[in-house]
Amino acid sequence: MPGGRTSRTGRHGPHSCQFDVVDIAVELARGNRSGAAHTAASRRAAGRPFVGRTAELAQLDTVIDRLGRGSPAVVDVTGAAGIGKSRLVGELCLRARERGATVLRGRATEYEQHLPFQPFADAFADLDDRALRAAPELLHILSPTRDAPATGPSQVANRPAVDRFALHRSAAGLLAQLGEAGLVVALDDMHWADPASLELLDHLVRHPVPGPVVLVVAHRDRQTPSALTVALTRGLDTGAVARIGLKPLAEQECTEGLAPGLPRDRAAQLYTASEGNPLYFLALLQAHGEGAELSGVSAPASTGDSSGGLPTGLGSLLLNELTPLTPPQRRTLEVIAVLGDNATPPVTAATADRTEAELDDDLDALMRRDLVRVGTGGRLTLRHPVIRSLVHESTAERQRVRIHRRAAAELARAGAPAVEQAQHIERSVTAWDPRATAVLELAAEQTASTAPTSCAHWLEVVLRLLPDTAEHAPERRRLMLRRARALGVSGGLRESRELLHQVIGTSGPDEAGVRTSAVVLCALVERHLGRYPEAIALLRRELNRQPGPSLSDRVSIGLELGSSAPHNTPYPQVRGEIAQTLADARSRMDEPGEAGALALAAFGEAYEGADTAAGFAERAAALVDGLPDDDLTALCEPLARLGWSEAFLGRFADAERHADRGLVIARRSGQVYLLPLLLLCKAHVRIQTCRLPSARQLADEAEDIARGIGSSELLAFVLANKAQVLLVASVPGAPEALAVAEEAVACMGPSDNWRASMAWCMLGYAALTGGDPHRARDALLRAGGDDLNGLQPSMRPLFLELLVTAALFTGDVDSASAWAERAREEAGRLGLPVQRASAMRSAAQLSLHAGDPVTAAALLSEAAEECARCGAVYWEARSLLLAAPVLTAAGSPQRGAAAREKGLRLATTGGAHLLVGLAAMAQQPVPPVGSDAPQWLVSLTAREREVAELVAEGLTNQAIAERLFLSPRTVETHLSRVYRKTDVASRAALAALIARS
Asked: Is residue 582 a contact partner of residue 541, using CB atoms and an 8 Å limit?
């Protein structure tokens, strides 16, 4: 079947018999890919022996031997062009097959960098349809490699919509399924990978596939894009990536392994000229064998890489191989180099204008010279990507354009996918051609949800071709708006903003719909960039312009304006405008608009802790629940706000229900930028209701999306919420939550808004849980300011509880009392059970400190009952576990045991390892120090004893802080207590006391 990479799973017309051996090999590879015969055949096919790399091979053998048992998830193979990365990866694949592992191998290519998921598609192309039935979303990756119909719409159009982040999870799931008995996925030349592939690879590095699965990533170090560098470096830090940097071959390995029959002095000359680069050495060796004059090879051939990443002089040597070719053979070679993955025999013949017999003759000659080889599924490939690059660049520009034009026509005739045609149209069409640009627009449409960077690229090509005339101006603005949407979800927020400002500034009076869409989208982009004043000013200017927007447009603008609060604008400052939006929606009987305004009002009032929030939430829910999904497409953000308001109000079931509905609508409509808000709403609910494993999954997904969008503002909010999930789901003192909270604060920078406040609060929470009350207090005061008014009003009692705990730990009883009293007052005003329970726990801490366990037990028991009434299982479990030892101390041991049993059951069932760990610590006595130990030693807590012992070792306070992951102030607090309990006044005296004991 002609056309593109569809040849991988089909036959090749009259050329099919020529490639039966290749097809049989592919079928063998689809099995367990093991067996000595297959391995031996593969080694013979390599054409030359594998030389050197003993240490690197030993490292790779260890990776294979330890598949699924703690081996790294990714092996990073890096080095210069021609240094032997592909050969090393190939040897790894052969050894993995010998051990019974499944091996998938793909390669990125230099001139197809806008073909989405190209290296993964190359690797997955050998999979049969049975393997893909469990992950149908992957058809979006494989569409260019599967048979496309000769006529009719592309298969992609009939597939269910899927966002790229769901696709990442499906790909990981498929790898896990394929890897049950061991899987190696080798991806070569990833320095040329398309952005969608790099994003998928980043996901797999951050979320390693469980089981015996390893990815091998080979790339040139000097040409590696920053996205790949960042992903692999992050994996090095976490231990998920093992790096192998290839250096030049040693002289003995190179000369004896690659030129055993060459006189030693001549081989040494070639080695010196090649500087140990095996590709260069082989090129020199071939030139020598053909009698070329190499009198100057004794001098070093290069002092570095050329602009193309090749050693200087290598290109000339390789191009010399083309000199004996006839003009038709050279033209066929150029066609194969330009076509790349589309170089199947039928497409090559049609593009080169050769008959079947003529093409066979050309290929025979090219294969004899080892310039062309037959790849997977019968594709024609050049011997090495370096040769392809050299042939491609040495082909005359007009000839390249002619090849691309003929290839585009042939692929269109064969019904190849639009993305396959688009890459050739881009390189061959230089003037406006409606039929060609229609294909480019279709390619953009087909990649919008899974590869928005490619979508933006194809639309840029269309805009470049579109005549800049008044006649085409409305079409230009429509395309610019589409491109801005794609850029806005793929990390190009600033470029998106620039395009949108152009659309707004040039829109005519009859383009109100386009202008309003651009204004609303631009305000959203400004918010993602953290530019809230600019977003609000833009929206208010649009509302006040003359002639004013239509009533429908006013509702859209008003909803976006309301969404700016409370991020950087106090809700009371936009309360009147939301009320006006509600009135506008009602006047035109716009139920979706009315529901959206009510949802925004509910969120704003709930954030402020106003008693009107419940009424707004009830009315919004009643409208939303009665509307069909299609009417809510434009209301995904208000749906998220409604869910959050219901969560703040303790209506957890309603909150999760509305978040779920918003997720379905947002995914279906491609509003990926709203998914994090909806996912985090669900995660927040599941924290409150103590379902921590699923909460972590939701937070992980939200993080993936936020990183893909490229908004530091959004990422900080996501990380702050993820830190809270990690805190309650991890054992006490686990470092991951603190690290995530620190990253959230770093992402916010100097910002001072709601999201920044949340990030600092979670940093304080993590620091307190890790035993650093001073840092906790500093972070919480940074979040709220000296008056604490910067803390979210509806959650302020919970943050005050943290401050009370930190103050008591540091001995600041006066501050603890003041904050506990404020928590009581604010909780009373809010009237929310979770907040009332929090204030009771704060008061209980003070009662305990004052030696009144009876009052403390009563307060903690009442707090548990408050939480139970609204379904806040996590806070119920926390209150019960705090109450258990206090009840026992108050003379009610049976009630204490019952509280502990129930609290542990709730915490364990819900995955709240923090509570389980704290309960275990509360039950454990201080580690025994001997029956005859002095009383002062018995009186020290475990942490105080640890600090004292480190002082005795001679460590400074700073060194102790670094060793124990505490702040120096916290170390000072511990040390002052040690001095008081031991009745010593200096470090030397304490060290002597510890030594005597």
From this structure: no
